[in-house]
Amino acid sequence: MLTGRQYKESLNDGRKVYFDGRLVEDLSSEPALAVPLEAIAAGYDKFHSDAPDAVNPLTMAPRSAAELRERIPVIIEMDLLLNVTYQALMTLLVAAGRLADDNPEFVPRIKAYVEDARRKDIRITECITDAKGDRTLAPAKQHDPDAYVRVVERRPDGVVIRGAKLHITAAAFGHDLMVMPTKSMKPGEEDYAIACAVPVSSPGVHITNTTYHPRGVDPRDFPVSSKESMPDSMVIFDDVFVPTERVFLDGQTAHAAVFAHSLGLWERLGGVSFMINQADELVGLAHLIAEANGTARVSHVREKIDEMMIHATLLRAGLEAALTHAHATPDGFYYPDDMFTNVTKYHGAANFNAMVRHLHDIAGGAVVTAPSMADFDNPDLKPLLDKYMGTGPDVSGEYRTKLFHAIRDTTADALGGWHQVTNLQSGGGLFAQRLVTRKNYDIERARALALKAAGLSGA
Hints:
By secondary structure, the chain is of the alpha+beta class. The protein has 14 helices and 13 strands. It has helices at residues 4-10, 31-47, 65-77, 80-99, 106-120, 257-293, 299-324, 338-363, 366-369, 382-389, 397-411, 414-425, 430-440, 443-453; strands at 18-19, 22-23, 124-127, 129-130, 150-155, 158-169, 176-179, 194-199, 205-207, 232-243, 247-250, 327-328, 334-335. The strands form 4 sheets. Strands 4, 5, 6, 9 and 10 form a 5-stranded antiparallel sheet that branches. The protein has a 4-stranded mixed sheet with strand order 3-7-8-11. The chain has a two-stranded antiparallel ribbon with strand order 1-2. A hairpin with a 5-residue loop joins strand 12 (327-328) and strand 13 (334-335). Helix 3 packs across helix 6 and helix 6 packs antiparallel against helix 7. It is globular and about 75 Å long. The protein starts with a helix and ends in a 6-residue tail after the last helix. The relative contact order is 0.10.
């Protein structure tokens, strides 16, 4: 296993990482990249073992529903890149089980890669969403054939791929990029049915970065995003060679969606786990700011907090159902139930904005107009700010202002906007969750109940 220091050294591999249009040779030299770099390194140190045969226990697949359940609190606490690595490895194992009957040649490669990744203690990011070009056109009919990642050359020892993947969290900090088709493919789209693992340092890989990390501002005004941030990337594959042993699907259009469906399941499980914590945090912020404002007993405020509590509890109940009804792969690895995972993710994403609206309505306009924390450093201003931002002997102006900054940072600024979009889009948008629900819902039971109610069942 790697230490945090060894992890950081391993990134000095000639990778092409860009930030604000500049090639970045030292990730620690950019504050917006240094914060997530240190968080990932700390994750390495947290789980490090000197035992010669040690592997990170969080990369091991659950062998029972109970073990899957026990993993949830750990997922929430682990750094984001380790979480993404866990999702990538679980995706591969679930996909291997689904490929075993029709394409067994890929199964040994997948299992060998998973074992090698664990042994080397690498981090993996998931690359699924393509540039897509004109959404009305299929991949093979695009004006630019590279709108979807595709194979442009097949060699005896591997393939060459070209294209781009968007919205890739932490791509600059991983060792491998797990490339997979973004959707199902049809006959004639064989070149787009490609799944493979690409080292970040491969010639032809270019990674841009965008981030909600605050830059050039007082970190006290951004109490969350200044300490916890992770950039998202566009990953460009400019004729990148991938050796055969790292290719897990190549041209089998009938199974192109296997990886996306498997990944979607694990991403949504991670998303639901995070949403529960986030929902509880929103309830806590609403309760604290209502107390600080002196409105905690106002009926409409109490009702809004009640709704936020109900939302958080329903998310937790959905997660419990997904874990209780977990399924096993042929190899005995457990994964959460598709139906309950997707329905819960849908509920959380569809109602997130309403919960944030409740919080803003309870908190008031000072969410975006509160004085900066630097204003409290001014000896002339501080007593005045404490006087007018405070609401009584037990609620100082500084205390209440810190609550406003936490609310703004997490829900009304760059990080808040990131949450609004990613809660909706991560693991696929609402339509993707509706499709899975439609596929798994017991519609025949519902129809039978309706026919019985109408006296049309013959019973």
